[in-house]
Design brief:
Layout (H helix, E strand, L loop, with lengths): L1 H7 L6 H33 L6 E13 L2 E5 L17 E6 L14 E4 L2 E7 L5 E8 L4 E11 L6 H4 E7 L4 E4 L4 H4 L7 E5 L2 E2 L7 E3 L5 E4 L9 E10 L2 E14 L8 E4 L3 E4 L5 E10 L7 E6 L2 E2 H5 L4 E3 L3 E5 L2 E10 L11 E6 L4 E10 L5 H28 L4 H14 L1 H7 L1
Parallel strand pairs: 1-7, 8-15, 17-25
Antiparallel strand pairs: 2-5, 3-6, 4-5, 6-7, 9-13, 10-11, 10-14, 12-13, 14-15, 16-18, 18-23, 19-20, 19-24, 21-23, 22-23, 24-25
Helix pairs in contact: 1-2, 6-7
The structure holds 2-acetamido-2-deoxy-beta-D-glucopyranose (5 copies).
One 2-acetamido-2-deoxy-beta-D-glucopyranose binds next to strand 6.
Protein name: Interleukin-1 receptor type 2
Pfam families: I-set, ig
Main location: membrane
Amino acid sequence: MQSCRLQGTRPEISTSCVLWKLLGTMFIVYLLIMGVSSFTIQPEERTVPAGNCQFRGKHFKTKFEVEGEPVVLPCPQMRYWLRASASPHVSVTWRKNDSARMIPAGEDTGLWVQDGALWIVPAWREDSGTYICTVRNASYCDEMSIELKVFEKTEASLPLISYPQILTLSTSGALVCPELSEFTRNKTDMKIQWYKDSVLLDQDNKKFQSVKGTTLLLIHNVSMEDVDYYSCVMMFAHKSMRYNITRTIKLRINKREEETVPVIISPHKTILASLGSRLTIPCKVFLGAGTHLTTLLWWMANNTNIESIYNQDRVTEGQRLEYSENNENYIEVPLIFDPVIREDLNTDFKCVVRNTRSFQMLHTTVKEATTFSWEIALAPLSLVLLVFGGIWMHRWYKHRTGKAYGLTALKTGHQEFDAYPSKIKEIK
Ligand SMILES: *[C@@H]1O[C@H](CO)[C@@H](O)[C@H](O)[C@H]1NC(C)=O
Ligand SMILES: *[C@@H]1O[C@H](CO)[C@@H](O)[C@H](O)[C@H]1NC(C)=O
Ligand SMILES: *[C@@H]1O[C@H](CO)[C@@H](O)[C@H](O)[C@H]1NC(C)=O
Ligand SMILES: *[C@@H]1O[C@H](CO)[C@@H](O)[C@H](O)[C@H]1NC(C)=O
Ligand SMILES: *[C@@H]1O[C@H](CO)[C@@H](O)[C@H](O)[C@H]1NC(C)=O
């Protein structure tokens, strides 16, 4: 600073002097900000009264638990407090709605707060009720409540305490023993026993397999008979006491979307087209009562996808159409040539349809429409007929007027008539 002031007296101000001045100013501004902010935070710390806390409402989920087992109630609004639990300035307290008393922290009472969550080990029916979690720091405080219902484990309480899980008929799937994360944290020797309607599923069971070290129960080839209550039991030890943690699952089974074997009903094996013209070949698939959803339909050229072989250029796949006629479902995907070129006559096109039940394809080739076509072949004939028709009209007219020279005209016409007797008959 000193050297700068000396330099500053000179007529030309050096860059180092400007930098020094800038740094000095920034330092003063920084000190001012720090001072002001410390003054604004300090009074606020004192203005948050203990009871004045914002209530954020009740958590949507009610915890249903089995009597005699450990329960962990998560603090519902904790996730809104970013990294709050890690901050030493954040405090989490719990109380039960019907008592103003804070829940004493301490494992001896069987009630304690750990990482913000309330542990009740074990929970009894009297512990049912509304619990309020309060989170506060120096300047802010909020509360949310969560409801706990503890039941005796009876048949009647099963629908209340069970978690619904869904598997699909005739497939293999897994049940997950839910809401164990609080208990399985830092645990490597997790052991879960599975029961189907209170009957232990043993290790040798082929259909039901508990996956070691996980919370999963595999069920092979799910059938309607598997609809039942399942329970998973995990052992939890605390203060030389062993507790069971039971979760009950009600398995529901969904039928698969109906699938039929699709039938390709169009195109034909060969398609006639003239070179240089636009051509659309629809591939139409009949599904009957089957679903559109799982049916894939696409075109290939020389065993390659249309998009990759033609680069979305001359030959493209059109938009997929899904429709129903007389309650039967159809899908259609057109193949569009714009235009047809000679190369297409040597290319193997195929329409492919696939769903989980079948895979089918139909080959089609584009053939050049020959210059010999029926229209062209029949053109001279129609000309002849036109001439004959004209003559006949003429004759008829002459016949009505009764003029004699009409007979010569009739003779000429008759000769023509004889030349194409069979064709005339066809037309008649
Ligand atoms: C606490 O309980 C009372 C009555 O039992 C009820 O009116 C009140 O809404 C409850 N408070 C919460 C936060 O659930
Ligand atoms: C207290 O928490 C609120 C809300 O999470 C936050 O906006 C505020 O910065 C925190 N105050 C202090 C001093 O940590
Ligand atoms: C699945 O179970 C059904 C009867 O529940 C049986 O008919 C079918 O063969 C089984 N499938 C397999 C792959 O085991
Ligand atoms: C835990 O469950 C097992 C059966 O899985 C049972 O034998 C045992 O008595 C239960 N323990 C407690 C403390 O309820
Ligand atoms: C497909 O293969 C045939 C010969 O195998 C070839 O003549 C034709 O050009 C190929 N088509 C395309 C689009 O590559």
